[in-house]
Design a protein that fits this description.
Helix content: over 70%
Low-confidence stretches: none
Mean pLDDT: 94
Largest sheet: none
Radius of gyration: 18 Å
Length: 209
C-alpha cells in the first residue's frame, strides 16, 4: 500500500512539477523496500535523495532526513565503506549545526557501522541503545523502535539470546503502540528466531536452533 501511494505521488509530480514531493515519495518508497527486504531498491531510492542533497548543497540534514536510512541499507548490503562515508558527512553536518536529530542519527549510524564487523562491540551496542532513548526524548518513536530493532538483530547475530529477546520484544511493543503493523510483523519475525519467553512445554527449539 505504501508503494502504491509512493508511485501515485511520482506520477502526479510529472504534472505538478513539485520536486519536494518527488523526493519525499522516493524516501517513502525506500522505507517500503527496506521493510520488504529489497535492499537494492531501498539503496537506490535513498541514495537518490541523499545524492540530491549533496549535489544541490542542501546542508540541513533534517530537510530530507534520509542519511540514517541509507546507512542502515548500506550496512545490510555489506557496503561498509560507503556507509562510513555517509556517516562521516552526517557527523560533520550535525556538529556544524548543533542539529539534535542529525546528532542522534549520526550516533545511530556510527553504531550500526561498528556493529557490522565480525566482533560484537559492547560500546557500539550501548550507543545504539542510547540513540533509541534519545529518539524517544525527541518524540521520534518510529526511529526509537527501529533503533531497537537494529540493536536486537545485532544481538541475535552475536548469539546474545537473552539480550536480543528483550530488545526485540521492546521493538515489537513500540511498533504496536504506534500502529505500525508492518514493522511490528518484521520485528516479530526476528523475535521468533531467538524464541519468545520460554514456552511452558520444555524441549522445543527456536527457529535458529
Amino acid at each position: 500500500e505504501a508503494r502504491r501511494w509512493g508511485r501515485t505521488t511520482l506520477d502526479r509530480v510529472e504534472s505538478t512539477g513539485v520536486r519536494w514531493d518527488w523526493l519525499e515519495a522516493k524516501r517513502a518508497l525506500g522505507l517500503a523496500a527496506l521493510l520488504d527486504k529489497d535492499l537494492t531498491e531501498a539503496s537506490q531510492q535513498f541514495a537518490t535523495v541523499w545524492d540530491h542533497t549533496q549535489n544541490e548543497g542542501v546542508e540541513d540534514p533534517g530537510v530530507y532526513p534520509v542519511a540514517p536510512d541509507l546507512v542502515e541499507v548500506l550496512v545490510e548490503s555489506d557496503e561498509i565503506e560507503r556507509a562510513r562515508d555517509v556517516t562521516a558527512r552526517l557527523v560533520v553536518l550535525a556538529q556544524a549545526q548543533n542539529h539534535p536529530w542529525a546528532q542522534v542519527g549520526a550516533q545511530r549510524s556510527a553504531a550500526l557501522v561498528e556493529l557490522a564487523g565480525v566482533l560484537y562491540v559492547d560500546a557500539a551496542a550501548d550507543r545504539l541503545e542510547a540513540a533509541a532513548t534519545t529518539y524517544r526524548g525527541l518524540g521520534l518513536l518510529f526511529e526509537e523502535a527501529r533503533s531497537l530493532l537494529a540493536l536486537g538483530r545485532a544481538q541475535r547475530r552475536a548469539r546474545k539470546w537473552g539480550a536480543a529477546r528483550d530488545t526485540l520484544e521492546r521493538a515489537v511493543s513500540a511498533f504496536d503502540s504506534m500502529g505500525s503493523p508492518g514493522w511490528a510483523t518484521d520485528a516479530r519475525s526476528d523475535l521468533a528466531r531467538v524464541g519468545a519467553r520460554r514456552p511452558t512445554s520444555p524441549g522445543l527449539l527456536t527457529a535458529t536452533e
